[in-house]
Amino acid sequence: MKKILFVCVENSNRSQMAEAFAKIHGKDKVEVYSSGSRPSGKINPKAIAAMKELGYDLSSHSSKSLDEIPAIKYDYAITMGCGDECPFVIAEHRDDWKLDDPKNMEPAEFNKVRDEIERRVKALLKGL
Question: Does pTM top 0.90 for this prediction?
Answer without folding.
Answer: yes
